[in-house]
Amino acid sequence: AVIRREDYQPYAWRVPEIRLDFDLGLETTRVEATLTIEPNPDAEPSDEIRLDGDGLVLESVAVDGSPRDDWRREGESLVVPVGQGAQKLTIVTRIAPSENTQLMGLYASGGMLCTQCEAEGFRRITFFPDRPDVLSVYTVRMEGDREAFPVLLSNGNLTGEGTLDGGRHFAEWHDPWPKPSYLFALVAGDLVARTDSFTTRSGREVQLGVWVREEDLARTEHAMESLKRSMEWDEKTFGREYDLDVFNIVAVGDFNMGAMENKGLNIFNTKYVLADEETATDADFDAVEGVIGHEYFHNWSGNRVTCRDWFQLSLKEGFTVLRDQLFSQDLHGAAIKRIGDVKVLRAVQFPEDSGPFAHPIRPDSYKEISNFYTATVYNKGAEVIRMMRSMAGEDAFRKGSDLYFERHDGEAATCEDFVRAMEDGAGLDLTQFRRWYEQAGTPHIVLQQMHKGSETVLTVRQSVPATPGQPDKAPVPIPLRVALFDREGGTHSGEQLIVLNEEEQSFTFEGHSSPPILSINRGFTAPVAIEREIARDDLVFLAAKDDDSFARHEAMQELLLGYLLDEPDEDAREAIGIAADAILDDGSLDHEMRAELLTLPPFAYLAERSQSYDPGAMVERREGLKTWLGERFADRFAALHDDLEARSREAGLAGKQARRMRSLALGYIAAADPAEGAKRAAAQYRDAPGMTDRQGALAVLAGLDGPERDAALGDFYDRFSDNALVVDKWFTLQASALRDGVLEDVERLAQHQAFTMANPNRARALYAAMAGNPVAFHDASGAGYRMIADVILELNLRNPQLAARFVPSLGRFRRVEPKRAALMRAELERIAAAPKLSRDVAEQVEASLG
Ligand code: ARG
Ligand code: ZN
After folding, report:
1. Do 12 and 49 touch, CB atoms closer than 8 A?
2. pLDDT at 840
3. Ligand 2 centre and the CA of 377: distance in Å?
């Protein structure tokens, strides 16, 4: 069934309080739920109450303490005739956590019990109105075996605990903040905590805990420091303070997504908690900090103000992604972070926006909401709010967000509420801007620049492409930060923000006696694709001189894309060489930015910029350019690789910057001279002070042939075989290597004793890596497509959410050359014909087939 945004109806009942009693067991858990219900004055009255359920065994129903048997089941739902008025509804259910392979609801992971309720997992724990606009105060009592579950955690504050007969014990938790069911959480297991405390600016002392298995405790320091930085930053930047006496984070090895913002009890994929120098890369450290921030920031953007319905998901996710991006920018500098965020947007969200599953950041309909936890809702959602911030300015934006939190605290709000608060608080008129919430598709901009006398006229045309279900689009407001560079002086006279509202508009700039060089969408102020006629020399100029790091990087990318996507052109390649030379020589650059500027565009973005591409040819082209650059600058890369060795051992920013450049240099060396590359990579691997250098070297070795490769891969596994997150890296490095024979490797790795489909991280480490490997996935035989289709079918019922995430790689067949496209399509049709498809997979496959 299709759920539509326009069909929203408030729920007939309010549930101001719920009491949950858990008798915990891995095999069987008994749940007694007592709901205090009363008619919702804002809804049509009803004399029955309809509760969601999924896979529950119902034991009993009572109303105000009296057993009832006049309830009925409608599908998975439970309907109880309760008449009118306030009352208490008690429902007893049984669930089987160790059989829960979907990892939604209450499930077992490595001997512990934990929950994931967003979006609709709470209904797998007990019957309840499992929708985000029903807010309740939760009191939770957990009881279980003391040895199996020494630690018992839930939301809010601990209000009681004690020992019971028969080796059992209990804990009682109370969360004073009304919340929707998707924010409920419980953890029971043999865990230890790193503890600390944080005092909020108004003087509340908060006990902090990061809970992990004992052997992981040494890798929790970074998570704890990240948490404290998040708490401080949100006070300073958004005026948001924490509101309970306890904040706990629990790391779980089996988790479908990254992490979950349950009130006062965040549950995380271990990948985003555990980190130390030896086992985590610099990028892993940043990801931990970013996700800790993200989940913490949800305490306000998500929990205190939640969503009315799941169509509003971007209300909390888009805003919270923006908040975590700004957090990381503030801590480590905006330039690199912005470039990285845009790279993700273009490699993941742009293809979504131009593909069969394109949807607005606020979708109009869905079959399975899990399918809408997308880069569009999250990352484009963040870009849309970032545009409001760019147009309003930081101070006005803060007034808007303050008003939003003040107005809607304790409510289940809508995207429209957010936009209105921004209008009222930040003083923006967002009438036309609302189209960003309504229309799917990446706006396309065409630029034309004319010069006469001292006048430069910029003509800008926009179009939003048709997407499934949305043939006609209207123009959207597009804020573009621009600067005009004086060719001779090499500088510009200041930035301006122009806002394009119409389909076509002209902007006039004065004061340039000769045609200036335009730097546009500086800082990537708008999530659009820009097409323009610009002289190659001007791009070289910007790649060497633009003072906006994003725009400088962009100019370099345009040079690279121009060469990689058009007919082979000596001059285009030469221009890249000249720009690269300037970048290598520029003493004002730090090594991280230098490396960023010299990094070739990701394959996914090349694919996004092409029609009917031949993946094999595209990879060859890209690798060929790498070889050419490696040969041309062989001495420079060798010198960098040598000279940065000492600095890459340093702690702090300088070390991180050196490591980034050093491994990039290694890649270029290996592309030009595989033997020299293998030698250097083996040494870098052997002497690596930490995982960044080690993984950097191994990634290069994994793409080569020869004894160094086998030795390093063997050593890596032996060294880290007891660390699941590093074993994931071992699988990924092999599955993403750009070389022949990877499909056979993947087949063999799937039989490895350490491989299991039951663990989402492990399944992704092997198969999502392969699906993102253009050589393996797009093998002309179609064997890569078949393998991914088999994975989808195998996971389909066991873990539908995970299964559905593999579909979009096949769904992009319309962009690929016809022979491969037909093979991809055939695999989608094979999946579609399977007997029992989960809603998740069915929705994705139907959309893909169109
Ligand atoms: N709200 C979580 C986050 O963004 C993600 C939860 C995703 N859950 C799901 N079933 N898709 O941090
Ligand atoms: Zn989130």
Report:
1. yes
2. 98
3. 10
CB of 257 sitting under 6 A from ligand 1 = yes
What percent of the chain lies above the pLDDT cut of 90? 100
Q: What is the pLDDT of residue 843?
A: 98
Q: Is the CB of 49 under 6 A from ligand 1?
A: no
ipTM: 0.98
pLDDT band at 141 (very low <50, low <70, confident <90, very high): very high
Quote the pLDDT of residue 175. Answer: 99
Tell me which residue has tokens 């969601």: 52
| Active site (catalytic) residues | 295
Q: How far is the CA of 703 from the centre of ligand 2 (A)?
A: 35
Q: For residue 309, what are its two tokens?
A: 């319905």
**Average pLDDT value over all residues in the chain:** 98
- Rounded to whole angstroms, the Cα distance separating 526 from 478 reads 6
pLDDT score of 425: 98
Task: Give distance in angstroms: CA of 314 to centre of ligand 2.
Answer: 9
Kindly report the backbone phi and psi dihedral angles of residue 709, in degrees, each rounded to the nearest multiple of 5, phi listed first: -60, -55
Tell me, what's the pLDDT at 340?
98
* Tens-place pLDDT, residues 408-422: 999 999 999 999 999
Q: Which atom of ligand 1 is nearest to the CA of 378?
A: 4
Structure tokens at 81: 């005739």
What is the 3 state secondary structure string of 648-662? CCCCHHHHHHHHHHH
Distance of alpha carbon 394 from the chain centroid = 25
Please name the residue ranges forming H helices in 504-548. 536-545
Query: Can you read off the two tokens belonging to residue 444?
Result: 């396309």
Residue 505: strand, helix, or coil: strand
**Looking only at Cα atoms, what is the longest distance across the chain?**
92
Q: Which long-range contacts (CB under 8 A, 24 or more apart) does 270-275 make?
A: 270/212, 270/216, 270/724, 270/725, 270/761, 271/725, 271/728, 271/761, 273/210, 273/212, 273/219, 273/220, 273/223, 273/249, 274/212, 274/216, 274/219, 274/220, 274/223, 274/725, 275/219, 275/222, 275/223
pTM over 0.90: yes
Give me the mean pLDDT over the 27-39 stretch: 98
Whether ligand 1 lies within 6 angstroms of the CB of 373 is answered as yes
The span from the CA of 265 to the CA of 406, in Å, is 24
Average pLDDT of the segment spanning 767-786: 98
What's the rounded mean pLDDT across residues 668-684?
A: 98
- Atom 2, ligand 1: residue with shortest CA distance: 260
Q: Which of 268, 296, 373, 844 best tests ligand 1's pocket when mutated (most atoms within 8 Å of CB)? A: 373
